[in-house]
Write a structure and sequence with these properties.
The protein contains eight helices and 18 strands. It has 280 residues and is α+β, with helices and mostly antiparallel strands. The strands form six sheets. The protein has a five-stranded antiparallel beta sheet. Strands 14-17-16-15 form a four-stranded antiparallel beta sheet. The radius of gyration is 19 Å and the shape is globular. The mean pLDDT is 97. Bound molecules: flavin-adenine dinucleotide.
């Protein structure tokens, strides 16, 4: 799984398949018939996969499901589409609203699940509705309200839905203006984030009233390492893989960080990164 996660960490999956829309219901049915557990991943940019890997079948929602259609200011995007591609396509068509997402290295499906957001924008602001498939292979269209989007949360995980596509409502705007905003946000990312090391983005959610990165920095943990995992020296909100980090290294590091921040400031840090698979 290290090949399928931006952390470059994770043991082997028993079975791995990249789905397209035609094969997906059949795969789900066969897995259910054979009682094989199914794990869904997108671009693997918010995942920590255990060193023991993942039992059962991993279904990647990626390139096979990355169709984009545009009608007026509504963009229908396959769940496997990378956010960078979706944002660039919107810009090409003079459609604004996705600028915030251009630098998030996830898929549209993963972004819906996480209600991904940055620089004052979030998926919640642009979603009209989302098509999902249930584990029984039935299609459903969920309205914005039904998605229950809040900070890094949607109803998708608890219902075990699989996002197939999203309809996004965008606004007409001059392409040059859209590109200016995208360029500015890109530069802000390059300046602030440790993009030269593998990571899964912000390790912890933002606790109410605080910034996780600042709490970690103020606790004196900048650069703190366990094995190949390190609290980024550039941005303490990120744990980076300096080379050869295992999932155990990351978990130990995260636990140490949580304990120290609790001890120093009495604030509980909750992981933003999703942990899946078998941890030793
Ligand atoms: C350098 C870096 C910067 C980042 N910056 C940001 C940022 O600014 N803002 C932000 O919000 N996030 C950020 N992230 C985190 C991450 O990119 C987002 O959470 C992204 O939305 C995850 O999408 P993904 O396709 O990679 O999902 P994955 O990591 O593959 O999966 C995340 C969760 O979604 C589920 N999932 C994925 N696809 C589907 C689907 N089609 N149907 C059902 N479930 C699905 C998975 O099971 C898992 O629970 C950053 C990450 C990195 C590495």
């Amino acid at each position: 799984m290290s090949k399928h996660t931006t952390f470059r960490i994770g043991g082997k999956a028993d079975l791995f398949v990249s789905a397209d829309e035609k094969s997906l219901p059949q795969l789900l049915k066969e897995a259910a018939d054979e009682k094989i557990p199914v794990t869904i991943i997108g671009n693997g940019s918010n995942l920590l996969v255990g060193d023991g890997g993942i039992r059962g079948l991993v279904i990647e929602i990626g390139k096979g499901m990355d169709k984009i259609e545009i009608s007026d200011n509504i963009m229908t995007v396959g769940a496997g589409t990378l956010l960078s591609k979706a944002a660039n396509t919107a810009a090409e068509h003079g459609l604004s609203g996705m600028e915030f997402a251009a630098g998030i290295p996830g898929s549209v499906g993963g972004a819906v699940v996480m209600n991904a957001g940055a620089y004052g924008g979030e998926m919640k602001d642009i979603i009209m509705d989302v098509d999902v498939i249930t584990r029984e292979g039935e299609y459903r269209r969920l309205t914005l309200e039904e998605l229950e989007l809040s900070y890094r949360h949607s109803c998708i995980i608890e219902n075990e839905y699989i996002v197939v596509r999203a309809r996004l409502m965008l606004q007409e705007k001059d392409e040059a203006q859209i590109r200016l905003v995208m360029e500015d946000l890109k530069n802000r990312r390059i300046e602030k984030q440790p993009l030269n090391f593998p990571s899964a983005g912000s390790t912890f959610k933002r606790p109410e009233g605080y910034f996780a990165g600042k709490l970690i920095m103020d606790a004196g943990l900048r650069g703190y390492s366990v094995g190949g995992a390190q609290v980024s020296e550039k941005h303490c909100g990120f744990v980076v893989n300096k080379g050869g980090a295992t999932a155990s290294d990351v978990v130990k590091l995260m636990n140490d960080v949580r304990d120290k921040v609790m001890e120093e400031f009495g604030v509980e840090l909750e992981p933003e990164v999703k942990m899946i698979g078998e941890f030793n």
